[in-house]
Specification:
The complex is a heterodimer.
Chain A: H1 2-52, E1 54-57, E2 62-66, H2 70-77, H3 79-109, H4 117-129, H5 132-142, H6 149-156, H7 168-196, H8 200-209, H9 213-241, H10 245-250, H11 262-272, H12 276-307
Antiparallel strand pairs in A: 1-2
Chain B: E1 4-13, E2 16-26, E3 31-35, H1 42-50, E4 57-62, E5 65-66, E6 77-80, H2 92-102, H3 107-121, H4 136-149, E7 154-158, H5 166-183, E8 186-191, H6 194-200, E9 203-208, E10 211-216, H7 218-223, H8 228-233, E11 240-247, E12 251-253, E13 259-261, E14 272-277, E15 282-285, E16 289-298, E17 302-309, E18 312-319, E19 329-334, E20 340-342, H9 350-353
Parallel strand pairs in B: 3-8, 3-9, 6-7, 7-8
Antiparallel strand pairs in B: 1-2, 1-4, 4-5, 9-10, 11-12, 11-14, 12-13, 14-20, 15-19, 16-17, 16-19, 17-18
The chains are: A mainly alpha, B alpha+beta.
Protein name (chain B): ABC transporter ATP-binding protein
Family (chain B): Belongs to the ABC transporter superfamily.
Organism (chain B): Seohaeicola zhoushanensis
């Protein structure tokens, strides 16, 4: 009898104990990641938010007096901000479709089993491992109007000389070319992996059903790849919004403001003009816009997948 | 019209030859099943006929034309794949009409042929569905619909039923047979399931290790297997084998000294033999080979008895009811025409043969 009485509170304890211990174990496993996330992501974001609603004190290097939306009002009224947004938009509208289309097309071309395929794939990775600033400088030399090799080649076929960094449109083209050179291989890698995962027998069925190379591509391969293409688009879109390094190294926003993307503008406002509060407000605006657009795009791509 | 001739066809991957000269003549309208264990080369041969694999040596003729270097789309064949290979982004109607669209058949004709095929296969209600909204059996039927819409010279089936559950497999099997009786199109059907091969085909080709073991009508393979392999492969439950030395013409002397009197002698007068008897050809009688019962399994219409002769496990299948407690000694008799005598050879790995899904 006494045994039972003594055991019952004990059993209740042992019932609760494993639960709290389980929780403790779970959180202790998550703790390192949480600390890292807070230190490296959450803190900077909230710090930026704080600054964007305040006057920035250079002396204490932190948020000063709370000013509400004043920074935002100022930024939204600033035509230079909207100009740089437009430049970013132009860059996105050209670079993204070109890179995704080119990436998948190259992947489709080199997907056929042949001896040099592995080597070619390895070569394709090189642009991705070159530091962006180095890539920018290298392309500056290639595209140099006077002694750049591209103008020399164009001269051989009777074109040019083109003033790659002097003309506003050409400078944008140059940035897009460099960016495409740098990022297409990444898309080729994703696309190759996606294509290797496609069901082989569907393509064999297409062969028997009478598809030629072109109709296999359009009627079978592309529709099957739509989900991956959409995902690649999102990944590249998120990367391209951050566009900064290549512009910094190749054109520094020039000529004039022709290639001055929004990140370059934010950078200059913050670290050249020391207008940290306004820069923070701009960064928040860009962040929110990116999130909204990404959401819309993801929703759209899901619709697209249902279509196919 | 839809004849297929395979003349000494060889296939090698690099230095490894997987098909060692296969010759088969298939008549117009004939249903031929290629059957064998996995890795025997049956699928490779089918894919060579389809044009999905090159032909290393020999010739393949479809409708009297050598097709070795003809593209798959120009061979006038249709193929049904094991995993159906439907176009996931197209609905049933478009899947079935796709080949016709590629051939620029006028739209009204496509619609007509698709709906005719859908009627045959009972797919009319599903024409607007995507493959992912269909069950396995329905997908299989769409894959067949895609083939018959084409009205090709030859149908090629590559293990079409192996992804279906047992019940559906039996149902689809008879649908395929019915379809063939109706359309009478030359059909080459690859399977590892000997029952499928037996029930469907006019002629069964048993392959093993890249060669043809035996080729003939199903019942001929069952009645007169040319080799131990065919004997073991065809028939379910599989044939029983007893090895030993032949003495005095018709006495089988087994390793442990057991003497079994065969109802016939070996016409070839070999001394070392393997004797095969199908489970259903044993009869339980007053005299005959003594066997020790281990398990009796009634299924109602018949009874399967597992027993031992000279320590070797054998299976016996008798019609109707039978009961005996374990360790009882029963006597088994076999009619002379049901005794198969083969050269002694290691038995094919039955576990491997029975990997039938």
């Amino acid at each position: 009898m006494s045994d039972v009485l003594a055991a019952s509170p004990g059993s209740a304890k042992t019932r609760r104990n494993p639960l709290t211990r389980d929780l403790l174990v779970r959180w202790s496993f998550m703790l390192p990641a949480i600390i890292l996330m807070v230190a490296l992501l959450a803190y900077p974001i909230f710090y930026t938010l704080d600054i964007s609603f305040s006057r920035f004190e250079i002396t204490s290097f932190g948020a000063g007096e709370w000013v509400g939306l004043e920074n935002y009002r100022e930024v939204i009224a600033d035509y230079r901000f909207w100009d740089s947004m437009k430049v970013t938009l132009i860059y996105l509208v050209f670079a993204l479709p070109i890179q995704v289309a080119l990436g998948f097309f190259i992947a489709y071309l080199i997907n056929a089993p042949w001896a040099g395929r592995g080597l070619l794939r390895a070569l394709f990775i090189i642009p991705m491992v070159v530091a962006p600033v180095v890539a920018g400088g290298m392309w500056r030399m290639i595209l140099d109007p006077l002694w750049g090799i591209l103008n020399y080649w164009l001269g051989l076929i009777g074109l040019g000389p083109l003033d790659w960094f002097g003309d506003a449109n050409l400078a944008m083209a140059a940035v897009i070319i460099i960016d495409t050179w740098r990022w297409t291989p990444f898309i080729v890698l994703i696309a190759t992996a996606a294509m290797l995962a496609l069901p082989k027998d569907v393509f064999e069925a297409a062969k028997i059903d009478g598809c030629n190379w072109w109709s296999t591509l359009w009627s079978v391969a592309v529709p099957l790849l739509v989900p991956v293409i959409a995902a690649t688009f999102v990944i590249r879109w998120l990367g391209a919004v951050k566009m900064f390094d290549i512009v910094l190294a190749a054109t520094y926003g020039g000529p004039g403001k022709a290639t001055g993307v929004v990140n370059l503008f934010i950078y200059e406002e913050a670290f050249r003009s020391l207008r940290f509060a306004e820069a923070a407000a701009m960064a928040v605006i860009v962040l929110v816009l990116t999130m909204v657009l990404t959401g819309i795009f993801l929703r759209g791509s899901r619709k697209l997948e249902e279509w196919f | 019209m839809g004849t297929v001739q395979i003349r000494n066809a060889r296939k090698a991957y690099g230095a490894v030859e997987v098909l060692h000269g296969i010759s088969i003549d298939i008549e117009d309208g004939e249903f031929v099943a290629l059957v064998g264990p996995s890795g025997c080369g049956k699928s490779t041969l089918l894919r060579m006929i389809a044009g999905l694999e090159d032909i290393t040596g020999g010739d393949i003729l479809i409708a009297d034309r050598v097709v070795n270097n003809v593209a798959p789309k120009d061979r006038d064949i249709a193929m049904v794949f094991q995993n159906y290979a439907l176009y996931p982004h197209m609905n049933v109607r478009d899947n079935m009409g796709f080949a016709l669209r590629q051939r620029r058949v006028p739209k009204p004709e496509i619609a007509e042929r698709v709906s005719a095929a859908a009627r045959i296969l009972g797919l009319e209600a599903l024409l607007d569905r995507k493959p992912r909204q269909l069950s396995g059996g329905q997908r299989q039927r769409v894959a067949m619909g895609r083939a018959i819409v084409r009205d090709p010279n030859v149908f090629l089936f590559d293990e079409p039923l192996s992804n279906l559950d047992a019940k559906l497999r039996v149902q689809m099997r008879s649908e395929i047979k019915e379809l063939h009786q109706r359309l009478n199109t030359t059909t080459i059907y690859v399977t590892h399931d000997q029952i499928e091969a037996m029930t469907l085909a006019d002629r069964v080709v048993v392959m093993n290790g890249g060669v043809i073991e035996q080729m003939g009508p199903p019942l001929e393979l069952y009645d007169r297997p040319a080799s131990l392999f065919v004997a073991a492969f065809i028939g379910s439950p599989p044939m029983n084998f007893l090895s030993g030395r032949l003495a005095e013409g018709d006495i089988l002397l087994m390793a442990d000294g057991t003497r079994l009197r065969l109802p016939v002698g070996d016409p070839k007068r070999r001394s070392e033999v393997t004797v095969g008897v199908r489970p259903e050809h044993f009869a339980v009688a007053e005299t005959g080979w003594p066997a020790v019962v281990s398990v009796v399994e009634p299924t109602g219409s018949e009874t399967q008895i597992t027993a031992r002769i000279a320590g070797q496990t054998i299976r016996v299948l008798v019609r109707g009811r039978f009961s005996a407690p374990p360790e009882t000694v029963i006597h088994l008799q076999v009619a002379p025409e049901h005794v198969h005598i083969f050269d002694p050879a290691p038995l094919p790995d039955l576990a491997e043969l029975e990997d039938v899904a």
